[in-house]
Design a protein that fits this description.
The chain is mainly alpha-helical. 63% of the residues lie in helices and 3% in strands. Among the domains are: 42 residues, no CATH class; 112 residues, Cytochrome p450-Terp, domain 2.
């Protein structure tokens, strides 16, 4: 059984609402995305921050996902959908971020706080355990943005300014301090952590969190592919990759 939508000969019903008679002309796409995702209409804060988060992560330069999409379109100019798919298929945690992992981490930490533990103590326990195991804390570190990720800082600033910061943002901030202590140096909180924290504080589930970067990067991919159609560089990118990698003949 599905509760999302149904097409009839004379109308389309989406989440119990008439598409043409109610939703079209009343809802923005962001509000509609929220309705599709959750089955509920967005509050003002949910709409505002969903917009903020989508904008924050839609575009980040010539990332591997965009390069893969451009090269796919160069090889098959008639397959826009295949080029978008190539980009999205490559949008794993290294490129797209670890927002889902951050959400699961924060949810687990929140359970411990609800049981009576202090947020700072929970954060220290998590950071210490990950450090001891040789792992990486999701949502911390970035190859470009140092010492701060400006996107993360802006999300946190807006959340504070609108009174939307809740227990998950508090835990994210506690983790920032705990990670610095465990690693012996500050690590930048990247955009994935505040995306997860703000969404959880606004009532989204951890299962919803990864949908935001995927949707956002789809828009970015479409922009790169529109530019690729007008100003092709896909084969230049392929040539650059070939030139950058030296071939060595195997020993005889």
């Amino acid at each position: 059984m599905s509760h999302i939508g149904q097409a009839y000969p004379d109308r389309v019903e989406v989440r119990g609402r008439d598409l043409t008679g109610d939703l079209m002309g009343r809802m923005t796409f962001t509000e509609y995305f929220h309705l599709l995702l959750t089955g509920r209409e967005a509050t003002e804060d949910q709409r505002f921050f969903l917009d903020v988060l989508l904008v924050s992560i839609a575009e980040h330069g010539m990332m591997p996902t965009n390069v893969a999409a451009r090269m796919t379109l160069a090889a098959d100019p008639g397959s826009l959908q295949a080029a978008v798919a190539a980009g999205i298929l490559g949008a794993g945690p290294v490129v797209l971020g670890t927002s889902e992992e951050c959400a699961l981490l924060l949810e687990g930490a929140r359970v411990k706080v609800a049981e009576g533990a202090e947020p700072a103590a929970v954060a220290r326990e998590i950071a210490g355990a990950i450090r001891a195991s040789g792992g990486k804390v999701p949502g911390f570190g970035h190859p470009v943005h140092r010492p701060l990720d400006p996107r993360a800082e802006r999300i946190l600033e807006l959340a504070d300014g609108r009174g939307a910061s809740g227990p998950h943002v508090l835990l994210a901030l506690a983790l920032r301090d705990a990670v610095a202590d465990a690693w012996g140096k500050p690590l930048p909180m990247n955009v994935s952590m505040p995306i997860a924290a703000v969404m959880l504080d606004l009532g989204y589930s951890s299962a919803h969190v990864k949908a935001v970067p995927i949707l956002a990067r789809t828009a970015g991919l479409l922009a790169h592919l529109a530019e690729e159609q007008e100003n092709p560089i896909g084969f230049l990118l392929a040539a650059g990759a070939e030139a950058a990698v030296e071939y060595e003949s195997p020993p005889k």
